[in-house]
C-alpha cells in the first residue's frame, strides 16, 4: 500500500500543475498492453492510446481528489475511426452500470446515458502514419498504471495517465501535455470480473488483430 500511496501522491503532485481533460473526439488505438500483479491487492496494467479527432468534445476526464470540482470518475465516450484507412477494430470494454462508478448508485454529473457507453478501440498498425487535416487534433494518452485498492466497501480501480496533444495552428505544430489520476469505484462481486474481462480481454483481442493485420503500405512514424 505504501507503493500505491507514493504513486498516487506523485501523480497528484504533477497533476496539480499539468493535469486536465483535453477536448477531442475521433479514433484511438490501444497498443502494447501489459498486465502484472505487483502484490495483492495492487495490480499494474499499462498501455498506450492514440487518438485523432475534431476538438470540442470531451474524450477523457477525471481525477481522484475528494471534493474537487472535477468528477471522481474516468469518462470515455464511444469513438470511431474517422481519418485513417489503416484503422482496424480491435475490441471493446464491457458496458458498466452507473452503480459501478458512483457508490451511491447515481449517475455522475452531466451524465445523460443510462449506461456508460461501450469503449470501442481502433487499432493503428505500428509504423503507420495518421494524416490530420488543418484544425484537427492528435491526442496521445498513456495509462501507465491501473491499481486496485482492497478497501471494503467498495474496491476501486485507480488509473494514472498522461496526455499529449499535437495541433496545427497557423501552419505551426503546438504540443501540450500533462498527467492525471482517475478513480473508478467498483461494487463487489463485479470488481474481479471487470478487472479480468474489462482489461485482459481487449489486450488479447488486440494481439490477435495485430497478428492478422495487413503489413503493406505502412509508413514510418516520425
Automatic annotation (TrEMBL):
<feature type="signal peptide">
    <location>
        <begin position="1"/>
        <end position="26"/>
    </location>
</feature>
<dbReference type="Pfam" id="PF07589">
    <property type="entry name" value="PEP-CTERM"/>
</dbReference>
<protein>
    <recommendedName>
        <fullName>Ice-binding protein C-terminal domain-containing protein</fullName>
    </recommendedName>
</protein>
<dbReference type="InterPro" id="IPR013424">
    <property type="entry name" value="Ice-binding_C"/>
</dbReference>
<feature type="domain" description="Ice-binding protein C-terminal">
    <location>
        <begin position="186"/>
        <end position="207"/>
    </location>
</feature>
<keyword id="KW-0732">Signal</keyword>
Amino acid at each position: 500500500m505504501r507503493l500505491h500511496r507514493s504513486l498516487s501522491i506523485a501523480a497528484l503532485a504533477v497533476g496539480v500543475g499539468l493535469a486536465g481533460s483535453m477536448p477531442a473526439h475521433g479514433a484511438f488505438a490501444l497498443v502494447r498492453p501489459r498486465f502484472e500483479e505487483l502484490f495483492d491487492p495492487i495490480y499494474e496494467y499499462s498501455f498506450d492510446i492514440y487518438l485523432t479527432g475534431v476538438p470540442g468534445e470531451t474524450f477523457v476526464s477525471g481525477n481522484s481528489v475528494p471534493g474537487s470540482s472535477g468528477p471522481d470518475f474516468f469518462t470515455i465516450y464511444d469513438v470511431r475511426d474517422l481519418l485513417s484507412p489503416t484503422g482496424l477494430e480491435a475490441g471493446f470494454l464491457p458496458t458498466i452500470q452507473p452503480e459501478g462508478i458512483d457508490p451511491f448508485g447515481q449517475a455522475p454529473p452531466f451524465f445523460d446515458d443510462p449506461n456508460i457507453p461501450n469503449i470501442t478501440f481502433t487499432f493503428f498498425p505500428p509504423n503507420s502514419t495518421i494524416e490530420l487535416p488543418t484544425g484537427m487534433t492528435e491526442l496521445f494518452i498513456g495509462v501507465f498504471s491501473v491499481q486496485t485498492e482492497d478497501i471494503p466497501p467498495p474496491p476501486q480501480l485507480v488509473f494514472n495517465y498522461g496526455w499529449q496533444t499535437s495541433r496545427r495552428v497557423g501552419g505551426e505544430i503546438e504540443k501540450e501535455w500533462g498527467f492525471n489520476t482517475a478513480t473508478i469505484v467498483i461494487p463487489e462481486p463485479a470488481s474481479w470480473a471487470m478487472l479480468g474481462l474489462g482489461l485482459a480481454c481487449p489486450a488479447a483481442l488486440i494481439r490477435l488483430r495485430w497478428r492478422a493485420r495487413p503489413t503493406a503500405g505502412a509508413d514510418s512514424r516520425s
